[in-house]
Amino acid sequence: MSLYFTKEHEWIRVDGNSATVGITDHAQEALGDIVFVEVPSPGREFKKGEEAAVVESVKAASDVYSPISGSVIEGNQAIADDPALVNRDPEGEGWFFKIEVKNASELDGLMDDNAYREWVKTL
Amino acid sequence: MSREVHSGPTDATQARGTPYSGDPDGGEGAAPPRLDKLPLDSWHRARGGRMVPFAGYEMPVQYEGIIAEHLWTRENAGLFDVSHMGQLLVHGRGADGALEKLMPGDFIAAPDMKPKYSLLLDEDGGIIDDLMATRRGEDFYVVVNGATKFGDIQVMENRLPGEVVVDYMKEQALLALQGPRAAEVLETIVPGVAELSFMEARPFDWRGQSLWISRSGYTGEDGFEISVPASAAAELADEITANELAKPIGLGARDSLRLEAGLPLYGHDLDLKTTPVMAGLTFAINKRRRAEGGFPGAIRILAELENGPPQKRVGFDVEGRQPVREGALVLDGEGNEVGKITSGGFSPSLQRPIAMGYVAAGLAEVGTGLKLEQRGKLFDARVAAMPFVPHRYHRKGAA
Fold first, then answer.
1. Parallel, antiparallel, or unpaired for β B165-168 and B57-62?
2. Which of B32, B182, B259, B338 has a 20 to 30 A CA-CA distance from B309?
3. What is the pLDDT of residue B21?
4. DSSP secondary structure string for all residues of B208-274
5. Contact A115/A57 with Cβ under 8 angstroms?
């Protein structure tokens, strides 16, 4: 299992042919109190970088991009029902969606955990 | 995740279009504006305030979180630094009559030490700014919005006669203590303040400093606005927050509190294209001024009072959970554009989205069903009575 990060503050945890996507702790901290989340339905197809989910805090609305291309396996209903779960556990229970890994080479160029945490410090 | 941010800035004092972001960078990609520091800048940072560009200053948008700060203010007492706002002293012979040429308020009959809400108008009756003006003898103490203050001073200097002078009191900070326990907190520090009624003001002494305190605010709660010399502001803020009932509150909660209270925000719900009648602020034009006119845009404003305005400011209850924000369109049942949203967001007290905007007068009745369109998505909404959360001002005889 490997964990990658994007410069748009998504994380992607890859396990064989499937991957779980969410937003980072830095992202939830920057957004503040999250009050609305929209996650994709199973079967939706995304290209890498396409808008896949919506996250809104009291003050800001943002799109969550799919870090890879593929078909959605599952959206996390728990965060749709309780958006504050993303604030409480962004890199665990507050995941957004699971997606199939169509083309593993799309993971090349993403950051690993250390690289991301170091990069965030420079922002 | 995108950095795209839809909601506007957070307070009466920011001009439309200035980037705001929940991100500490605050509006990535925009040319960095030259920002001034508030007298309490280091005080905010020491308390974990997240500073964002706002009205030309670096200001705290939040400390522990907008929802927690919002709810704290509704239940206890919240301390807001509003030192970015412009505190002006208008003085000189005939200041009251001269101000009536710029605004529709009754300044001639204004009693001493009673703040009055008024509006600086352009020749077409459009709103240049909204403000509070308090008679102090022959003089008027005027508090205007931060992002508009230098323009306001220019307008006043251009249009007031030579013997009436506008002084910008830039050495003064302005703090607001708001919430149902604000009086209890401030009374222990400045004895006597609890005797003020809503919309009353007077000077107080505190540790050898002169404070000007009015019982007023912009949250819908009881509370006070305190003008204090900038050099003593941190000491006063420390003393207030030493009381465990009082916490510092950022701009984010200030915006959600005033939206729940149905209070319009300049640069968003009020601008040069809106008149006091469209905005539902006709309480600021009394019988004599309606009869006599003599303020900028009087012909248009009096006609709107007589015949009704083309559009009206209204509240909206929004179906579902997704916030609908400034800039969304208002559509009628046939999909025609009939208005727009000027403020909108999530209400921490009601735990659902609420909004404010303008609609064609014929569709402004409470209960009217309309659609809102945001980023290609339609939302069901209903015209709602404002305030969304009842005001709890401290009126004479009421407590």
1. unpaired
2. B259
3. 34
4. TEEEEEES--SSSBSEEEEEEEGGGHHHHHHHHHTSTTEEE--HHHHHHHHHHTT---BTTTB-TT-
5. no
Residues of B in Cβ contact (< 8 Å) with A64: 1-2
Nearest CA in chain A to B3: A62
The pair of three-digit structure tokens given for residue B393, joined into one six-digit string: 């001002």
Yes or no, beta carbons of A62 and B5 under 8 Å apart: yes
Mutate to test the interface with B, among A34, A56, A58, A77 (most CBs of B within 10 A): A58
- Residue ranges in chain B modelled with pLDDT below 70: 2-33, 397-399
Residue B186: predicted pLDDT:
98
- Token look-up 């950051």 returns A111
> pLDDT per residue over B90-120, tens digit each?
999 999 999 999 999 999 999 999 999 999 9
Q: Which residue, A3, A19, A9, A23, is CA-closest to A95?
A: A23
Instruction: Give me the pLDDT at residue B9, please.
Output: 41
Helices B251-260, B66-75: crossing angle, 10 deg rounding:
60
Burial class (CB in 10 A: 0-12, 13-18, 19+), B205: exposed
Cβ distance of B67 and A58 shorter than 8 Å: yes
Q: Write out the residues of chain B at the interface with chain A, using a CB-CB cutoff of 8 A.
A: 1-7, 10, 20-25, 61-62, 65-68, 252, 255-256, 321-323, 325, 345-346, 348
Contacts of B1 in chain A (CB under 8 A): 8-10, 23, 27, 55, 62-65
Among the listed residues B236, B352, B375, B366, the one whose alpha carbon sits nearest the alpha carbon of residue B314: B366
CB contact under 8 A, B5 and A35: no
Q: How does strand B77-81 pair with strand B246-248?
A: parallel
Q: What are the phi and psi torsion angles at B166 (to 5°)? A: -110, 120
User: Which value does ipTM take for this structure?
Assistant: 0.91
CB-CB contact of B391 with B212 (8 Å):
no
Residues B205-264: pLDDT tens digits?
Answer: 999 999 999 999 999 999 999 999 999 999 999 999 999 999 999 999 999 999 999 999
A61 contacts on B by Cβ (under 8 Å): 4-7, 323, 325
CB contact under 8 A, B321 and A30: no
Q: Does A27 touch chain B (CB under 8 A)?
A: yes
Report the distance separating Cα B164 and Cα B392, nearest Å: 37
The DSSP line for A54-65 is EEEESS-EEEEE
**What is the Cα–Cα distance from B195 to A40, expressed in whole angstroms?**
57
- Rg of chain A, C-alpha, whole Å: 13
- Chain B interface disruption, residue of A6, A10, A59, A65, most B CBs within 10 A: A59
